[in-house]
Amino acid sequence: MYRKGVKNIFDFLIGLCGFPFFLIALIIFGPIIYFTDKGPIFYNANRIGKDGKLFKMYKFRSMYVNAPDIRLADGSTYNGEDDPRVTKIGKFMRNTSVDELPQLLNLLNGTMSLIGPRPDPPDWLDKYPEDIKIFLTVKPGLTGYSQAYYRNSADGEEKMKNDAYYARHCSFMMDVKIFFKTIAIVLGHDNTYKDTSNEDEAKKQIEELRKH
Hints:
Keywords: Glycosyltransferase, Membrane, Transferase, Transmembrane, Transmembrane helix. Its EC number is 2.4.1.-. It holds the Pfam family Bac_transf. The chain crosses the membrane at residues 12-35. The chain is mainly alpha-helical. It has one domain (2-210). Helix content is 46%, strand content 9%. The chain has seven helices and four strands; from the N terminus they run H-E-E-H-H-E-E-H-H-H-H. Strands 1-2 form a two-stranded antiparallel sheet. Strands 3-4 form a two-stranded parallel sheet.
């Protein structure tokens, strides 16, 4: 009942209530993002949605235009504090999660939920073990179990296991706990960046970028 009906209603109402905040952020940050390097304000990424279907996930752009895609050994995207691909305003938006506000539009169009697994890029679809794919039975979320309790510190394998756990135990009370835990972790700036100290290949690519 909750997962198939009430949760969808809550998502739409939250998206509707949050829409004015998105507009305020757009008015404040939109011009800054654009005039930083005369690029687009939004970053519209293809992501894996419910039942494995692809959808467009909206974010405020936090990187310079045409920034290269750098991955860690587990296939996840590089997210180090020293990333030169990120603009100054982009770093602020990431630290405060302002860059995620456009995903309120995904709540309104029904492609995302407030709480759910964070969506992965399309090339991850073939990497999911069969016992993990259960998390594709729920909509991806603006925040989720793994995001709330680990934010960006969990590696790809751990994230998938956390997402599968959420899909098996999804409930109203679990979503409430995740919601308030997310607020606490964002305000505390906990685990904003991954530990990339052992990622030699990623570090090498970052050093090359700094030289240009």
